[in-house]
Structure formats: C-alpha cells, structure tokens
TrEMBL record, chain A:
Residues 79-174 form the Toprim domain. The keyword Transferase does not apply. The lineage of its organism: Bacteria, Pseudomonadati, Pseudomonadota, Alphaproteobacteria, Sphingomonadales. One of its GO terms (molecular function) is zinc ion binding. This is Recombination protein RecR. The gene is recR. Belongs to the RecR family.
UniProtKB/TrEMBL annotation, chain B:
The gene is recF. SUPFAM superfamilies: P-loop containing nucleoside triphosphate hydrolases. This is DNA replication and repair protein RecF. The RecF protein is involved in DNA metabolism; it is required for DNA replication and normal SOS inducibility. RecF binds preferentially to single-stranded, linear DNA. It also seems to bind ATP. It comes from Allopontixanthobacter sediminis. Coiled coil: none annotated. PANTHER family: DNA REPLICATION AND REPAIR PROTEIN RECF. GO terms for cellular component: cytoplasm.
Length: 198, 361
C-alpha cells in the first residue's frame, strides 16, 4: 500500500487527459525513481508555466508573453485571422506552419445542451478586432462536428456586415484517402466542394 | 457465402458454445430460458448497432466470466474458397466498447454491413403497430440502416441538432436568430437525408411486398408519412418560419422526428393496429421477409426468427417455410419444441439448447 502522498499524486495525475489510474501509477513510480533529475526538472517546468503563462489579450492563445508570440510577430500577415475553437486547434494549425496569418481562439463552441452561449465565447473580441479594421479575411476553422459547424454558421452570420472575405476549411477527401473507403457523407461533401483544376 | 459456424464465449448464459455446419434452415429448440434467443442475439451483433435486444454491451458478458464476451462466425463459400472469419467482442477493461475483427484484422462495426445482411423478428416487435410512433421510426431506421450504413450518422446528427434547437427554444431568454440559423442549417441538411433514406426504404420494401398474394398472409400496405416538408431548403424554410409557434410549444413541431410509418392491411383497408393479433404478426412477417430479401442483394443474408412458427396455424406455417425456402437468406428459428418444424426438420440443422449449452440433434 502506497503512502498518502503518493496516492494523492497518482490520483492528481490520473485526471490528466490521456492518462488513467494505471498509467498514473506508472508515472509516479518513474518520477520517484528519478526524484533528483526528472522530478526536479518537471517541478521547475510546472512552476515556470504557473508563474508566467498568460492568455493573449488579442487572440486568446496561451503564451509567456502578452500579446503572444504569434500576435507580436511582424512577419505574420495582419490582414488574415483564423478562428479556432481551442488553443489545441491553434497549435495543430501552427505546427504545420502553413498558415501565415494570425489566430483567434473562441475558447469553446456553441452548445445549447451544455449551456455554452455566444457571450461565453470570445466572440465579442473577434467582432471588435474585425470592426477596428485592417482585416480582409476571416478563416473559420471549426471542427466538422455538429456544434463546430453550428458555431461556424453563427460566426459567418455575425461577420456578414463587415467588408470581409469569410472562408471555411474544406471538408472532404483526406490526403492519401481512397474514394472506395469513404462514407457517403464525406464523398458528398467532397463532391459539393469540388473545384476547377489548374 | 453463408454462415457456417458460430462460437459464443461468455455470452449471457453461454460459457463456451459452438454451432457447426449451419444449413439454410437452422433450428434452436429448448425450454424457456435455455439460451436460444441468446444465440440469435449473438448472431445479430454481426450487424452494426446494438443487436436484437438493443441491450447495453456490459449487460451481455456472462456474470461468471472474465468480464468481456466474444462471438465468432465463419462463413464458407465454394470448397476452394477460403473461409471468412468475423469476430466481435468486448474486453473487461472496456465493457461498453464493441470491437470487431474481420479475418483477424481490426475493422469497424459499421463495416460489418458489407459482409452480412441481418434481419430479425422477435416477440418484442409484436406490438409495433400499437406502439408509439417513435418505435416505428426506429423500425424504419433499422431497415434503412441495413440498406445504407450512412443512414445512422444522419439520424444521430439530426437527433443532436434537434435537441439543441429544442433546448434553445425552451430557454426563458429569446434565442438568438443567428444561433438558430446555424442549428437549423444542420437540421435541414441531415434531416432531409434522414427523411429521404426512410422514404426510399419504405418504398422499396413496399414494392417487394406488393407482388405478394393477399393470402395466406395478410398483406400490409406501407406508407411513409413525412413529418416535415421534403427537401433541405423547404425544411429549412419551414423551421425558420415556425420559430414563434415552436417557441410557444417549447419544441420543434415539424421534421423527420414527427415521421410516421402508416401500415394498413391490403384488401380490408384497416389500420394495422386495429387488425387481429394473428394478422398483425402476419404483416410483420411479410415486412421482415421483404426487407431481408432486399438487404441480401449482393451479400449473404441472415434471417433470425424468434418464436415465430409456434404462433401460426399449420397452413400458414407451411406457407412461411415455403417462402423462406425460396428466399435468399439463411434462416435461424427458435421454438420450445420440434413439432411445428416437422416440415423442414429433415433439411434443417437442429440444435437442442439447454442451460446455455447446445447439442446437435
């Protein structure tokens, strides 16, 4: 039977996404064996994050500076804003280094069942950014889920009054995907979103 | 190809059960509670969905076992053709998650529909015509799903969008129009496809039934009655114009969630719900057989008939067997005794089921 301290740590770790009680116990054991090296490094890293991490006042990204590194980067295209549901989506898009504009993190998606209303998301700040000018394009990069698409539809309507190009990520054939293996819904989307070649 | 062997392991009262050498007719005979329907349920899990009892997976694993269950099936074709092995199982660590294997390789449950077309008729379905409209919508969806696996996704998405809209409408604050627009766009898209799928299925089953004689089985006439305007744009417009009314009612009053499957008895022109118990059963059999015939196009069909033969008079029973014999599907029947099956006894594979064990007779 492990001591109270170890149990507390294990149950705290077990709540982390992707872990569970079994993996948490394994992590604890691994850390205990390396209490002078890895455990110290982890402690220091956690403290740094706790002390220095802030939410960017422009886009809602998390970073150690405010505005965040992306918003402060002068090489980034100032005229294009990509709207995402969560910071994780921003990271996923930015890892690919394909998008050169800036982001806006909503902090969730509209959901009547979960009681998430427009005022609970960073929509007001998005409209302010757009209203203050200098933005030509808004890319709606919501998930292809029911709530994600509802949110995208909602934003498109709220943004209608501004002189903007509103675009949305394409849905359809994945890269490397074979038609034969796709479900009809995805195929229908791909067909609807077909475009001229060349 | 046809189902040749099936194995059940820690499946309800079956600890380890193996049924070999299936034929076109397969009989499971035994007392009440022996585990006959459990075998049918196990087979029904080779269709996408929750099987013929609509049971929670965690309920299925035998209490005495390791906490998970598994069902295996092998399908044999020509002698030189390699057998196809299908498996579906749960693990003790995740009793609510069904895993599927095809020839030893992980596959999706939805993909099972590519290999087998499974239809069933159980005593629980006897009340279908007298039951709520919701039960008949589920019945339509199950038939549609067997013909087009994508149907399930439209149904689920529509259901979610509908719940979102109803929640917004029943809020004390007036709902924001742009938000409703977003939800209704999703409802219209998936609702239109859902309605089309149901309409198509009912029409196809109806055509299959229409060519049958009115005797000895009561012949049903099926009509799909749409709960909302057909087509995505018309439905979206109806939702938008109905907001005030729906808000007063605190729920959505048009759409495929108000669909109905209207069944009447041919010749008599009487709603199925007002027909005799025997006539209702006969119409259910007609629908099930017609659907099985449709579903089995291009893939082996399986028809699971739980306690069906005992409730028919000898004349209708003989006629049922005759129809089954000329049909495309392999048939699995249960009964408490062999008597009613005398006519197919010689050609059938027969198992005596008792206490979760089977013995080939």
């Amino acid at each position: 039977m492990a001591s109270q301290e170890i149990e507390t740590l294990a149950s705290a770790l077990a709540r982390l996404p992707g872990l569970g009680p079994r993996s948490a116990r394994r992590v604890v054991l691994w850390l205990v064996k390396r209490r002078e090296t890895a455990l110290l490094q982890l402690l220091a890293a956690l403290e740094q994050v706790r002390d220095r991490l802030v939410e960017c006042r422009i886009c809602g990204n998390v970073d150690t500076q405010n505005p965040c590194g992306i918003c402060a980067d002068p090489r980034r295209d100032q005229t294009s804003v990509c709207v995402v549901e969560d910071v994780a989506d921003l990271w996923a898009l930015d890892r690919a280094k394909l998008y050169t504009g800036r982001y806006h993190v909503l902090g969730g998606k509209l959901s009547a069942m979960d009681g998430v209303r427009p005022e609970d998301l960073n929509i007001g700040s998005l409209l302010e950014r757009v209203a203050s000018g200098g933005i030509d394009e808004v890319v709606l990069a919501m998930n292809a889920t029911l709530e994600g698409q509802t949110t995208a539809h909602y934003l498109a309507e709220r943004l209608e009054e501004y002189p903007l190009r509103i675009t949305q990520l394409a849905h359809g054939l994945p890269v490397g995907g074979e038609l034969d293996y796709l479900d009809e819904g995805t195929l229908a989307q791909a067909l609807r979103a077909r475009r001229p070649v060349g | 190809m046809a189902l040749d062997a099936i194995t059940l392991s820690h499946f309800r009262n079956h600890r380890e059960t193996r049924l070999d050498g299936a034929r076109q007719f397969n009989l499971l005979v035994g007392e009440n509670g022996a585990g006959k329907t459990n075998v049918l349920e196990a087979i029904s899990l080779f269709a996408p969905g929750r099987g013929l009892r609509r049971a929670a997976l965690a309920e299925i694993a035998g209490a005495a076992g390791p906490g998970g269950f598994s069902v295996g099936a092998s399908l044999a074709g020509q002698p030189d053709e390699e057998a196809l092995r299908l498996g579906t199982y749960t693990k003790a660590a995740q009793p609510g998650r069904r895993l599927v294997q095809v020839n030893g390789t992980p596959a999706s449950a939805v993909g099972l529909g590519e290999w087998l077309a499974i239809s069933w008729l159980t005593p629980a379905m006897d009340r279908l015509f007298a039951d709520s409209a919701g039960a008949r919508r589920r019945f339509m969806d199950r038939m549609a799903l067997a013909l087009d696996p994508a149907h399930a996704r439209h149904a689920a998405r529509y259901e979610n969008a509908l719940r979102e809209r109803n929640r917004l409408l029943s809020d004390d604050r007036p709902p924001e129009a742009a938000w409703l627009d977003g939800i209704e766009a999703q409802m219209a898209q998936h609702g239109a496809l859902l309605a089309q799928g149901r309409a198509r299925t009912v029409a196809a089953v109806g055509q299959e039934i229409a060519v049958l004689p009115e005797q000895p089985f009561a012949r049903p006439v099926l009509v799909y009655a749409a709960g909302g305007p057909a087509g995505q744009d018309a439905f979206a417009a109806a939702l938008k114009s109905g907001r005030g009314r729906d808000r007063a009612a605190r729920r959505s009053l048009v759409g495929p969630h108000r669909d109905e499957l209207e069944v009447t008895m041919a010749g008599k022109n009487v709603p199925a719900a007002s027909c005799s118990t025997g006539e209702q059963k006969a119409m259910l059999i007609a629908i099930t057989l017609a659907h099985a015939q449709l579903a089995a196009r291009g893939r082996p069909g399986l028809l699971l008939l739980d306690e069906v033969a005992a409730h028919l008079d000898p004349f209708r029973r003989a006629s049922l067997f005759e129809r089954l014999r000329s049909g495309r599907a392999q048939v699995w029947l249960t009964g408490t005794e062999l008597g009613p099956f005398a006519e197919i006894r010689a050609e059938a594979a027969v198992w005596q089921v008792s206490g979760g064990q089977v013995e080939r007779v």
